[in-house]
Amino acid sequence: MKKNILLIHTGGTISMSEDTNGAVKPGANNPLTQGTDLLSSIADLVVEEPFNLPSPHITPKEMMELKYILEDYDKKGNIDGAVITHGTDTLEETAYFLDLTCQASFPVVVTGAMRSSNEIGSDGLYNLISSISVASSSDAKGKGVLVVLNDEIHTAVNVTKTHTSNISTFQSPQYGPIGIVTKRGVLFHHTPTKHENYPVQDIEKKVSLIKAHAGMDSSLLKALLELKVDGVVIEALGQGNLPPSALEGVKDLIKNNIPVVIVSRSFAGIVQDVYGYEGGGKHLKELGVIFSNGLNGQKARIKLLVALAKTDQMDEIAEMFMF
Ligand SMILES: NC(=O)C[C@H](N)C(=O)O
Fold first, then answer.
1. Can you tell me which atom of ligand 1 is nearest the CA of 11?
2. Residue 181 phi, psi dihedral angles, 5° rounding
3. Which residues form the Asparaginase/glutaminase C-terminal domain (predicted)?
4. Distance between CA 74 and CA 142 in Å, rounded?
5. Would the pTM of this model clear 0.80, i.e. be above it?
6. Is 89 labelled a binding residue?
7. When you count CB atoms within 10 A of the terminal residue's CB, does the N or C end of the chain come out lower?
8. pLDDT at 30 (0 to 100)
9. Which residues pair with 261 in a beta bridge?
């Protein structure tokens, strides 16, 4: 039996076309609607298009809007699953934001495309059909927000865009995908063991993300303090270390009750308090730096925004990052 699927279009390459000059851009009509006959043969669709934005234009405001649309449909009942089409550049941030905050009980799948609708080998309609199949699957329930592209099912918490243009760009470097989409159906081969969710109402705080490098000093960190940010995420070195010259800035932020969260600038692995030298993980922990649990920089930033919407207590924020 066909399921009732809420389909929310938000823009991105999946809803763009290439013009005669080779520029990929949004047009007056969403080309995805051309797939409607085919799509409505696999599910009964309720379509929403709250905005049409390339994903570099997406902010937490739009993410919050999506959360409320999903929750409103959940309250009304009669929806079995939802698919969101989204630009791929910030797709992982929106997916993770919804994973952390959305209270809807049906499966939510986020998808996109690397090639626009009229390019040879366009992957948009294919990814959309796969995503509708996943959102229709009762096995997709309770696994958090999922990201489906290129026949793979990833969790929002682990997935990241790894390549600028390749259609297999979305990967989960820590743990791999949790399922696949095949011609015969949807197959989950792993189940996430934990899922966190926070019922926040608004995102108003300012969190910056910066990357550590050899010889990094404290100037940017000090500037962030002057700019009155509410939190800072640093992509630290290796297992979670910083150059000694950056420590003054870290200390100033923490002294002023600004949480400093570290992730690793390495592609995979988690940060830990391993090294005991100046600026090493053990030292950073003593200074009050919060270690994220395997998130990448952009997702730790989303989580810190959510944490700051809940509390300004440093110990509560640190506890949320231990999850
Ligand atoms: N493939 C894509 O969707 C990339 C595009 N720049 C976007 O994120 O909107």
1. 9
2. -110, 125
3. 206-321
4. 14
5. yes
6. yes
7. N
8. 75
9. 233, 290
